[in-house]
């Protein structure tokens, strides 16, 4: 079995395990697993009650890594997230007590109910996978992933995420309401007990770390890299946007495309991978201008239009055309 086949086999196992709990959301689950293998962080945004936290918990449970949940509230302090140094009278020295980010998977529930100051406590750990407290730097576990849930900013008692923080999330997904048949199945499976109670892990942190290493080796041809740059550059020139995609967005798009290709059983990236991921990876970083708002067009629609307007590198199924 090749390396990429291993990725496909393990991720299928993880995906099927998540689907035991989250019904009818195959695209959202696949994007979540893609972000995990691409060493990114996931933002799940939607109205309350559609399964945002359940998806985060199910993904964490499926890979059997260490999991910590942080409930973001208006009175949550940055030290509750990163940790704090406390003076120990017995040893007459300060000792570090880790915060909620010290785990393989950190579930940040309702992240936009905390103040911007507390939200910003995640900036260093999400980008550099480390925490600095009182001048001392502490490395975080590997793999490390933040899965944050967020209510729409129109909801009462929420704060919009700072642009710098949104940019650190590799992708944003929305759960959406379930289909009637999925909601009926949910009533049968969720009404008496939680399906999480019987869910068993189908992978472990060490196995996921190996898959991450394999994904890093997936080939990206120069023409495909240029295609990614063309997409993000177009957002910076669009008259419909006040803020375009950052260079970090380009990097995240290519990393996610590598993972997506591996999930498809390929050891090389094709333009279709970028097109599939462009909206979840780029849209949440953008700020629409007056022109788009007046036309009722959101960032997702703008990105979709940009994808359609950019010439695609010559399409082929043969690997040698992308070397």
What this model shows, in words?
- The chain is α/β, with parallel strands linked by helices and 323 residues long.
- The protein has 2 domains: 3-211, Rossmann fold; 218-322, Helicase, Ruva Protein, domain 3, CATH 1.10.8.
- The chain is built from 14 helices and 11 strands.
- The strands form 4 sheets. A 5-stranded parallel beta sheet has the order 2-5-8-1-9. Strands 3-4 form a two-stranded antiparallel sheet.
- The protein is globular.
Briefly, what is this?
It contains 14 helices and eleven strands. The chain is an alpha/beta fold and 323 residues long. The relative contact order is 0.15.
Quick tags:
15% strand; 323 residues; Helicase, Ruva Protein, domain 3; Rossmann fold; single chain; 2 domains; five-stranded parallel β-sheet; alpha/beta; two-stranded antiparallel sheet; 14 helices
Q: Taking strands numbered 1, 2, ... along the chain, how are they ordered across the largest sheet? A: 2-5-8-1-9
Assembly state of the chains shown: single chain
Number of domains: 2
Mean pLDDT: 86
Q: Which parts are unreliable, with pLDDT below 50 for 5 consecutive residues or more? A: none
- Give the C-alpha Rg: 20 Å
- The count of helical stretches stands at 14
**CATH-wise, what's the superfamily of the largest domain?**
P-loop containing nucleotide triphosphate hydrolases
Class from secondary-structure proportions: alpha/beta
Q: What is the strand tally?
A: 11
Give me the strand/helix succession: HHEHEHEEEHHEEEHEHHHEHHEHH
- Content of β-strand: 5-15%
Distance between the termini: 23 Å
Instruction: Specify the overall morphology.
Output: globular
The CATH architecture category of the largest domain equals: 3-Layer(aba) Sandwich
Approximate helicity band: 40-55%
CATH topology of the largest domain: Rossmann fold
Q: What is the CATH first-level class name of the largest domain?
A: Alpha Beta
Largest sheet: 5 strands, parallel
């Amino acid at each position: 079995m090749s390396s990429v086949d291993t990725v496909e086999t393990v991720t299928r196992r993880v995906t099927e395990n998540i689907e035991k709990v989250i019904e009818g959301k195959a695209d959202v689950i696949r994007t979540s697993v893609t972000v995990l293998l691409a060493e990114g962080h996931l933002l799940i945004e939607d109205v309350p009650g559609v399964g945002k936290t359940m998806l985060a918990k199910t993904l964490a449970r499926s890979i059997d890594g260490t999991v910590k949940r942080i409930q973001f509230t208006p009175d949550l302090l940055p030290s509750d997230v990163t940790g704090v140094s406390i003076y120990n009278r017995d040893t007459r020295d300060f000792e570090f007590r880790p915060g909620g980010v010290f785990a393989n998977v950190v579930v940040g529930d309702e992240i936009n109910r905390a103040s911007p100051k507390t939200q910003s406590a995640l900036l260093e750990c999400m980008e550099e996978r480390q925490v600095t407290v009182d001048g001392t730097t502490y490395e975080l576990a590997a793999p490390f992933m933040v899965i944050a849930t967020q209510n729409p900013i129109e909801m009462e008692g929420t704060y919009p995420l700072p642009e710098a923080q949104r940019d650190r999330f590799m992708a944003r997904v929305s759960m959406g309401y379930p289909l009637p048949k999925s909601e009926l199945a949910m009533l049968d499976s969720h009404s008496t007990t939680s399906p999480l109670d019987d869910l068993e892990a189908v992978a472990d942190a060490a196995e996921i770390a190996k898959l991450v290493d394999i994904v890093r080796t997936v080939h990206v041809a120069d023409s495909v890299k240029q295609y990614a740059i063309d997409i993000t550059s177009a957002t910076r020139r669009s008259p419909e946007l006040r803020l375009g995609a950052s260079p970090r967005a380009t990097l995240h798009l290519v990393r996610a495309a590598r993972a997506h290709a591996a999930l498809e059983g390929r050891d090389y990236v094709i333009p279709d991978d970028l097109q599939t991921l462009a909206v979840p990876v780029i849209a949440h970083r953008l700020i629409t201008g007056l022109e788009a708002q007046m036309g009722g067009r959101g960032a997702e629609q703008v990105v979709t239009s940009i994808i359609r307007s950019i010439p695609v590198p010559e399409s082929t199924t043969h690997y040698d055309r992308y070397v």
